[in-house]
Write a structure and sequence with these properties.
The complex is a heterodimer of chains A (about 220) and B (about 425). In chain A, about 55% of the residues lie in helices and about 10% in strands. Chain A is built from 10 helices and 6 strands, in the order ααβααββαβαααββαα. A 3-stranded antiparallel β-sheet of chain A has the order 1-3-2, sandwiched between helices. Chain A has a 3-stranded antiparallel β-sheet with strand order 4-6-5. In chain A, a hairpin with a 5-residue loop joins strand 2 and strand 3. In chain A, helix 1 packs across helix 4. The N and C termini of chain A lie far apart (about 60 Å). In chain A, about 30% of the residues are buried. The C terminus of chain A is likely disordered. Chain B has 3 domains: about 80 residues; about 160 residues; about 90 residues. Chain B is elongated and about 130 Å long. Chain B is mainly alpha-helical and about 425 residues long. About 5% of the residues of chain B have low confidence. The chains are: A mainly alpha (about 220), B mainly alpha (about 425). At the A-B interface, strand 3, helix 5, helix 8 and helix 9 of A face helix 9 of B.
Chain lengths: ~220, ~425
């Protein structure tokens, strides 16, 4: 059994490496790996392999992203998770504002979802003649999360996309082309928002914008 | 008798034919005006002669709701256009089954009567009408289903806002229910009784119709389940939008908001448990004999370091630095050069930046040769991958026409981005 598992692990080396490096694996970032991860027996085999590293395979509720979790949450792990939590909370507003900005600028119906295609050029073009959008991009880009130092719109947009790529929310399939795809990590972010709302019982109504304004 | 009937009916039929052709031609002749009437509230009357208007009104392509109002398209005309251009926002879905069934009953009765009287011409005519009625019924369902599929396949693309899509989906679901109710009105037991032993009627009203309607039923069920699925997706999208805007608004209102530390709970929530990244590092090892050849060839393939011997010689003293003070100077130089690289990376200029120009502009006091040497050394200290991120443009010349030693005068750099 364990030999079969080991033989099986051989072909999943690159996937394991990516997971260990802290990457999120979804249908956009690695379609074939994601498909393979649908297989219960492979997930069990990966878990067995990861056991000595005190890690296990985890996914969000919808099963749209996979990542590694601590198997045993010891003190050191708690320390690391607290720091991570703090980062997540600090990054939340700029990320949500970016989601809203893209939605409005591109006239989309819905919040960005995994697989959506984004072009920085398009966002830039729409903002050039729109002072309010331009101002919002500027404010967002100079936020410490995105950290742009530039005063130029194109450099600001570029920096925002660069940071989102670094954080795994966007994927750039061809490094020479300014076309990005939204990854499944965006689902994880939304899950976080929902989780915090429920845990903290925040007065964020899911039923309507109007009633939400009266609550705030 | 049938011949006599033929003779009587011929003028009637030819009159019908001429009028029909004339009136259909009206649609083509006034297509512009009719389409304007379709897109606007009223039909524009400029450019329409009173004669043409009279004809259009007589053909019931246009009508005037009351004396004071303008001229509008008749509902049938509007429907015809909506169907023809597949304008899903205005296409009607309507299979008025009850009335059609009544029509079928009447037509079957007349057909029977003619058959008993031996009036074959009349019987043929009734059968033709009956066939058309059945075809119409079938066609109305087929059209309605086609319109529903069109809307489904385009994700209700004819409206842009999500809320409109939700409303359109609700409307489509109601239409499906009405169509299914219509299908349920057709009682084949009753039809079997109605056709009796007549083979022609049985084929038309039982076998053919039953087969067509059962296909429609299957399609409608499929459409219904797809609509429900799509609706669930729309609702999820709506909820997501509200969640994002709601949380963003909340965080803006409460800048100091900190949620509980979920990592300190005895049961850490699944979502929070994300292990720290771990990189699988590896180094060259010589303890496996068969790896030696590989490492050897890798070593041989390393890019050979080529830079001007002139500069190397000139920069000798810095390399030799031993004492603490010299080491500190060396460190300061290294730091300044690093700042220069950071400046290159941060700069979004398309033009490469000259190392010497930077030295002068930043009022640093390093001798030019030493400065250049350190810039070059820093570059060569980078990994191959990082080196490729820079556009490296040395400015150099031959020492003399007969001496191929190359002298570096300056180096310009541009950050090209990481591939």
């Amino acid at each position: 059994m364990s030999e079969i598992n080991l033989a099986r692990m051989l072909s999943h080396g690159p996937l394991l490496e990516r997971l260990l490096a802290g990457e999120f694996v979804c249908a956009v970032s690695d379609e074939s790996a994601f498909r393979q991860l649908q297989d219960d027996s492979l997930r069990e085999a990966l878990d067995a392999y990861l056991r000595p590293l005190n890690r296990r395979l985890a996914s969000n509720d919808e099963g749209s992203v996979y990542f590694l979790a601590w198997r045993q949450v010891d003190d050191a792990a708690r320390e690391q998770l607290s720091r991570q939590l703090n980062d997540t909370v600090n990054h939340l507003l700029p990320l949500l504002e970016w989601l809203q900005l893209v939605q409005e600028a591109l006239g989309r119906d819905a919040v960005l979802a995994p697989g959506d295609v984004l072009k920085p050029g398009e966002l830039q073009a729409r903002s050039e003649d729109n002072p309010s959008l331009r101002e919002r991009i500027e404010r967002l880009a100079t936020d410490s999360f995105f950290g742009s130092q530039s005063e130029q719109l194109d450099a600001q947009v570029k920096q925002v996309f660069k940071r989102l790529k670094e954080h795994g929310y966007l994927l750039q399939p061809h490094s020479d082309r300014q076309v990005y795809r939204v990854t499944g990590k965006i689902d994880y972010l939304i899950d976080w928002v929902r989780f915090i709302r429920d845990e903290e019982q925040l007065p964020i109504d899911t039923q309507g914008e109007a009633s939400q304004e009266t609550l705030l | 008798m049938s011949q006599l009937n033929d003779a009587q009916n011929a003028p009637l039929e030819s009159r019908l034919l001429t009028t029909g052709v004339e009136r259909l031609a009206l649609i083509g002749r006034h297509a512009d005006v009719l389409m304007q009437g379709y897109t606007q509230d009223e039909v524009p009357l400029e450019g329409l002669s009173s004669n043409a208007l009279r004809k259009l009104l007589a053909a019931r392509l246009l009508w005037r709701p009351d004396e004071h109002s303008g001229v509008k398209l008749t509902p049938k005309m509007r429907e015809l256009i909506a169907d023809m251009v597949a304008d899903e926002s205005r296409r009607q879905v309507n299979a008025d089954v009850a009335d059609t069934l009544e029509q079928i009953r009447t037509q079957v009765a007349s057909y029977r009567e003619s058959s008993q009287l031996g009036d074959y011409w009349q019987q043929e005519q009734q059968l033709l009408r009956l066939r058309q009625t059945v075809d119409d019924l079938n066609g109305r369902f087929a059209d309605a289903i086609d319109s529903l599929w069109q809307r489904l396949n385009s994700d209700f693309g004819f409206v842009s806002r999500l809320n409109d899509k939700v409303r359109e989906n609700e409307r489509a679901q109601k239409q499906v229910v009405r169509l299914l109710d219509g299908l349920a009105l057709i009682d084949f037991d009753e039809l079997i009784d109605l056709v009796g032993s007549d083979g022609t009627l049985r084929k038309l009203l039982i076998s053919q119709l039953q087969q067509q309607l059962s296909q429609h039923f299957t399609s409608l069920r499929e459409v219904q389940s797809r609509l429900t699925e799509l609706m669930a997706r729309f609702r999820r999208m709506q909820a997501r939008s509200r969640l994002v805007s709601g949380m963003a608004a909340f965080l803006r209102e409460h800048p100091g908001f900190t949620p509980g530390n979920y990592a300190r709970r005895s049961e850490v929530p699944e979502l929070c448990n994300r292990a720290a990244p771990l990189s699988a590092a590896g180094s060259a090892a010589l303890d496996h004999h068969h790896d030696m050849a590989l490492l050897g060839s890798l070593l041989k393939n390393l890019p050979s370091v080529t830079h001007s011997p002139e500069v190397t010689a000139a920069a000798g003293p810095t390399v030799m630095a031993e004492s603490a003070m010299v080491a500190a100077r060396q460190q300061a130089l290294k730091q300044d050069v690093e700042n220069f690289y950071l400046h290159v990376v941060d700069s979004s200029a398309d033009e490469p930046l000259s190392a010497l120009a930077y030295l002068q502009a930043s009022e640093l006091t390093w001798p030019e040769e030493i400065w250049l040497y350190q810039v070059i050394a820093e570059f060569q200290g980078l990994g191959q991958h990082e080196q490729q991120a820079f556009d490296w443009q040395p400015k150099e010349s031959k020492a003399s026409p007969f001496n191929d030693v190359r002298l570096i005068h300056d180096v310009a750099l541009r950050f090209a981005g990481i591939a």
